[in-house]
Each structure stands twice: as structure tokens, then as C-alpha cells.
UniProtKB/TrEMBL annotation, chain A:
Cited function: Component of the cytosolic iron-sulfur (Fe/S) protein assembly (CIA) machinery. Required for maturation of extramitochondrial Fe-S proteins. The NUBP1-NUBP2 heterotetramer forms a Fe-S scaffold complex, mediating the de novo assembly of an Fe-S cluster and its transfer to target apoproteins. Negatively regulates cilium formation and structure.
Coiled-coil blocks: none
UniProt-listed SUPFAM superfamilies: P-loop containing nucleoside triphosphate hydrolases
UniProt family annotation: Belongs to the Mrp/NBP35 ATP-binding proteins family. NUBP2/CFD1 subfamily.
InterPro entries: Mrp-like_CS, Mrp/NBP35_ATP-bd, NUBP2/Cfd1_eukaryotes, P-loop_NTPase, YlxH/NBP35
Highest taxon listed in the record's lineage: Eukaryota
Residues holding ATP: 22-29
Pfam families linked to this entry: ParA
Name recorded for this polypeptide: Uncharacterized protein
Gene Ontology BP term (one): iron-sulfur cluster assembly
CDD domains per the UniProt record, alphabetical: Mrp_NBP35 (cd02037)
UniProtKB/TrEMBL annotation, chain B:
Organism: Spizellomyces punctatus (strain DAOM BR117)
Name of the protein this chain belongs to: Cytosolic Fe-S cluster assembly factor NBP35
Function: Component of the cytosolic iron-sulfur (Fe/S) protein assembly (CIA) machinery. Required for maturation of extramitochondrial Fe-S proteins. The NBP35-CFD1 heterotetramer forms a Fe-S scaffold complex, mediating the de novo assembly of an Fe-S cluster and its transfer to target apoproteins.
InterPro entries: Mrp-like_CS, Mrp/NBP35_ATP-bd, NUBP1/Nbp35, P-loop_NTPase, YlxH/NBP35
Gene name tied to this protein: NBP35
Entry binding sites for ATP: 69-76
Coiled coil: none
Length: 271, 318
């Protein structure tokens, strides 16, 4: 049975943002995480929904490996990543008994799960809901676009790396957004350059500038360029404490502050 | 027909005849099973395409899958370099089949952007890089390379079936199958359709950090569940040598011991580590063979050593 937008669990969510990329491993989950943490720093209440069902990365990003989801009368209670409950997280990773279990599901089962994630999670009041997606333009993306239509999502942040092979897939994703009429908030160029810690020479591991040129060509905004920071994986994966508390020490924090500002400006001026 | 064990779901009632049996949904033990209706009305027996696939694949000696749970770790780059390396020997016929339907990278990486597939009465002809290296990809079927392929599972399965059934590869020594990330429709279909024809094994690609390894463990479990032999794990993007000062840096830190330790833990062979070299990405963007152009790179040696191990594995199978 379809529930009307007024009574559903998403009705108290002010802004919905999708994080998309045609290509895998370009940093969708990393960008989702950093956007979420920057929004929390701005005093927002944020939810992160991970719909990458066969490769959920969000639990580990927030240091929440092994956490469980609880059930309440209002629905599934998301896992909170901080003490003040300003950052709620939901992922299939929380539903697995063993984190190495493979989720070998075909399309229809994935579609049903996403529908449940969108309808049954008791987010409560949220300023922003970020939806982290798997690569491609298939079941997960079609389902999320269809199910969100009634909630008018604010738009999509599209992540790419600078090399042509990645851009080729991301162009498809931009065309996907056009087709399903999801506005594009802008493009983030990730892994753009690496500064050698020994001699400070900047090497372009995956070339440079491609994301900006593509954004121009498709007439969408360019949100910023994020360099490779090898300390980032260390910050995320270090034992003890969590990335949530360490994020502001990261050299990428100032870059994400700017990106977040552009995103919030767009979302909040249109509402 | 005797019950076939592989058709009996784990949580089925006792004496379940198996979902593929002609008694499915009709046997006495089916009464009360929640899936009775599905079994009674579903199509029976093996997929009629499978004998056709087996016939096509009978002229292909070795089939190797390139897999990874994680995206962007270098599956397609590895596939390309493996195929280029194998095809250096002109007497060896090599084919690449790209089953990443929504993000096909093969046309660009092999320098075949903009080519189209031709049809003849013996089937679809692959696009050839050289006399002994053919490529098949959804990328060749798009009118505009930027078109999004917005397909749900069943449609993706259909095209994979067609790739296996209708492509006229001719005699092949190696068919290398490049896959999308994850463990879903494309993977299940490829494995299911190739089961009878036989898969030599899977090469699993990962990057060194735990974020990628955790998805790759899932992929290894997938291989174990579907009984695909694992040739081994390759660690890609491990370390980077600065062209300025020649010192090595870690880009994706192997905080949990990297792929070598993961491979040991799950008991699969470790094939080697390939360092990052910006020239690898550049040759992929331009569709050139990295191994031909830059024999001085440390990644060159690493690639060849991994490829030798794969060749040895496959030769031992025959």
C-alpha cells in the first residue's frame, strides 16, 4: 500500500541529496561521509542511507562496523554515529550476521530492500538525508528515483575522478539524471592530484581537470576538486575513536567546507 | 525424474522435489510451502539457451573471469593488460567480453571507441584490436557513447546470455570476462550460463585498503558459494613512486595487512602487487597497450609476473 508523503517516515526530512557516479571506486562513499560530517559541523541533523547493497562501505566509514539496527513501532531505528544523535546512518551492512557474507541478490530483491529502506526507517526530523549509491545506472538507481519522486529530492552530487575512463561512465550518469529528472547539484572531482610527501611535487595519478571540463560541457556546477590524501584512509581506519571525531583534523576538511556551503546554498535557496 | 539436490532451497520443506523438477509445486510435500504457486507456474527445466551457449563455448579453450566486489580498483585495466599480454604471442587467440552493462570501459581501454558490432549469419562479430584480439561490449551498441544504459536485472541478464550465445568468437585460446563491481545479476548470470561450459577460474582484483578488502571478501565468498575456482588475488594501486624524487609513497594504506594477508586468511593464492603508475591510467584513456609502451615501469614487471602465474594456472588445468 502506498503511504502518502504526509504520513511517511520521510515527511520530516527537509532535504534529500543523492550521491551518484557511473563509475565505482571514485569516492562516492567518502564524499557522502565527508559531506555528512561537514553538515553536522554546521549544526544540521543529518541522515546517511547506504543503498549499495552488495558492497556497503558506509558502516566502516563511520566506524560503525558490527552495529545492529533495532526495530521500534515506528520502523527501523537507524544507527547513530555520535552521542548527540545528530548523525543517523542506515546500511545493509548493519543487517548482516557476518560482515564478510556476500549479498548475492538479483534486481527484484534489491528493489524491495530499497523500498523498505525508504519507507521503514524512522529517521525522525532531519535537515539532510544523503543517499549513497552503488556504481551504475541500474536497479538501485531506478528504484530510488521512482520511490523518491513524491518527495521531490533536492538533487544529486555527482562524483568522478579526472581520467577519461571514469568520465565516460559519469557522463552516462548525468544523462541518467536528465532522463529521470533529478536535478544535478554539481560535480565533485575526487582523487585530483597527489602531493608527494617527500618532495612536495604534485603528481596527477589519474590526470587532472576532466571533471571541471565535463561539468562545463553539461552545464552543471563544478563543486570542487579534492586531492588524494593518503592520511585519509589512516584517519578512517585507525583503531580507537572514530573518523567522526577526527574529521576536522583532516586536510580535506576545509575543501569540504566549501563544497558543503555550495550544496546547502543551493538546497536552502530553492526551498 | 530424481530430485536434483542443487535445486532444493535450504529452507524448503522435507522431500522438496527441487525447483527445477517437473514435480515442482505438485508433489505431496509441496502442500503448504509458501513458494508452491511460484514453483507450479515457473518455467521448468534448464534454460534452453544453455546448450547453445555450450556449443559456442566449445571452441573456447580457457575462460577466465576478472572479479572484484569493489568498483574502480582496476578490473578493466587488468583485463585489458592481461589480454594485451596474452595476445603478444600471435599464435594465441584472445577474446575480451565486457559484461559491465551500465559502465562499459572496454571500448575505450582497447582503443575501439566508436566502433560498432557487425552481424553475420554466424552471429555477432566481435570488434578486433588486432588479428588475434577481439572485444565484445555493450559500448559498441550505443548510438551515442554518453547514452545511459538504464536497465534493470532481467534485461542485463538477457544481453549477457546473448553475448555468450550469439557472439561468433571463432577458435579462442582465452576468453577474459570483465565484470562490474558487486555480486548481483551480471555475476550470477555469467556463472549460471557458463557453469556447464566450465570456467577455468576467477582473478580477484583489490586495492590495499580495508575499505576495498571488505567488499572483496564478499566476492570471495560469492565464488565459494557458486563454486568458481579462484586463481588468485591481485593487489592493484599498491604504492606510488614519485617521478620527481623516486621515493615511494603509500596512497591507499594497507592498514589491515593488505591483500596478501587477506588472501592468507581466506586461503586463496596471492598473485602479486602492482604499483600505481600514472602512465597506466594514461594508456587506458588513450586505448594503448601499457605493457608495449613502457617496459621500464616497475608496474610492467609486476604485471608480467602476475600474468605468468595466471598462464601457469590455466596450463595446469588443461
Amino acid at each position: 500500500m502506498e503511504r502518502s508523503p504526509a504520513t511517511s517516515n520521510l515527511s520530516q526530512v527537509k532535504h534529500i541529496i543523492l550521491v551518484l557516479s557511473g563509475k565505482g571506486g571514485v569516492g562516492k562513499s567518502t564524499v557522502s561521509t565527508e559531506l555528512a560530517l561537514s553538515l553536522v559541523e554546521l549544526g544540521k541533523k543529518v541522515g546517511v542511507l547506504d543503498i549499495d547493497l552488495t558492497g556497503p562501505s558506509i558502516p566502516r566509514m563511520f566506524g560503525l562496523d558490527g552495529q545492529q539496527v533495532h526495530q521500534a513501532s515506528t520502523g527501523w531505528i537507524p544507527v547513530y554515529a555520535d552521542e548527540t544523535k545528530r548523525l543517523a546512518v542506515m546500511s545493509l551492512g548493519f543487517l548482516l550476521q557476518n560482515k564478510d557474507d556476500a549479498v548475492v541478490w538479483r534486481g527484484p530483491k534489491k528493489t524491495a530492500m530499497i523500498k523498505q529502506f525508504l519507507e521503514d526507517v524512522a529517521w525522525g526530523e532531519l535537515d539532510y538525508l544523503l543517499i549513497d549509491t552503488p556504481p551504475g545506472t541500474s536497479d538501485e538507481h531506478i528504484s530510488v528515483a521512482e520511490n523518491l519522486r513524491q518527495y521531490n529530492p533536492d538533487g544529486a552530487v555527482v562524483v568522478t575522478t579526472p581520467q577519461a575512463v571514469s568520465l565516460a561512465d559519469v557522463r552516462k550518469e548525468l544523462n541518467f539524471c536528465r532522463k529521470v529528472k533529478i536535478p544535478v547539484l554539481g560535480v565533485v572531482e575526487n582523487m585530483s592530484g597527489f602531493v608527494c610527501p617527500h618532495c612536495a611535487e604534485c603528481s596527477d595519478l589519474f590526470s587532472k581537470g576532466g571533471g571541471e571540463a565535463m561539468a562545463e560541457e553539461f552545464k552543471v556546477d563544478f563543486l570542487g576538486r579534492v586531492p588524494i590524501d593518503p592520511t585519509l584512509t589512516t584517519l578512517i581506519e585507525a583503531e580507537g575513536g572514530s573518523f567522526v571525531n577526527r574529521f576536522t583534523q583532516s586536510s580535506l576538511y576545509p575543501i569540504f567546507q566549501k563544497i558543503t556551503e555550495k550544496v546547502t546554498d543551493k538546497c536552502e535557496s530553492s526551498s | 525424474m530424481a530430485p536434483r539436490n542443487e535445486d532444493v532451497p535450504e529452507n524448503a520443506p522435507e522431500h522438496c522435489p527441487g525447483t527445477g523438477s517437473d514435480q515442482a509445486g505438485k508433489a505431496a510435500s509441496c502442500a503448504g510451502c509458501p513458494n508452491q504457486a511460484a514453483c507450479a507456474t515457473g518455467p521448468k527445466g534448464p534454460d534452453p539457451a544453455i546448450p547453445l551457449i555450450n556449443e559456442r563455448m566449445s571452441s573456447v579453450k580457457h575462460k577466465v573471469l576478472v572479479l572484484s566486489g569493489k568498483g574502480g580498483v582496476g578490473k578493466s585495466t587488468f583485463t585489458t593488460n592481461l589480454a594485451f599480454a596474452l595476445s603478444m604471442d600471435e599464435s594465441i587467440q584472445v577474446g575480451i567480453m565486457d559484461i559491465d552493462i551500465t559502465g562499459p570501459s572496454m571500448p575505450r581501454m582497447t582503443g575501439l571507441d566508436g566502433e560498432t558490432i557487425h552481424q553475420s549469419n554466424s552471429g555477432w562479430s566481435p570488434v578486433y584490436v588486432s588479428d588475434n584480439l577481439g572485444v565484445m561490449s555493450v559500448g559498441f551498441m550505443l548510438e551515442n557513447p554518453d547514452d545511459a544504459v538504464i536497465w534493470r536485472g532481467p534485461k542485463k541478464n538477457g544481453i549477457i546470455k546473448q553475448f555468450l550465445k550469439d557472439v561468433d568468437w571463432g577458435q579462442l585460446d582465452f576468453l577474459v570476462v570483465d565484470t562490474p563491481p558487486g555480486t548481483s545479476d551480471e555475476h550470477l548470470s555469467a556463472v549460471q550460463y557458463l557453469k556447464e561450459a566450465g570456467i577455468d577460474g576467477a582473478v580477484i582484483i583489490t586495492t590495499p585498503q580495508e575499505m576495498s578488502l571488505q567488499d572483496v571478501r564478499k566476492e570471495i565468498n560469492f565464488c565459494k558459494k557458486t563454486k568458481i575456482p579462484i586463481i588468485g588475488v591481485v593487489e592493484n594501486m599498491s604504492g606510488f613512486v614519485c617521478p620527481g624524487c623516486k621515493k615511494e609513497s603509500v596512497i591507499f594504506a594497507p592498514n589491515t595487512g593488505g591483500a596478501r594477508r587477506m588472501a592468507e586468511e581466506v586461503g586463496v593464492p596471492f598473485l602479486g602487487s602492482i604499483p600505481l603508475d600514472p602512465r597506466i591510467g594514461k594508456s587506458c584513456d588513450l586505448g594503448e597497450s601499457f605493457l608495449d609502451l613502457y617496459p621500464d615501469s616497475p608496474a610492467h614487471t609486476a604485471y608480467l609476473s602476475v600474468i605468468e602465474k595466471i598462464k601457469a594456472y590455466v596450463a595446469a588445468q588443461a
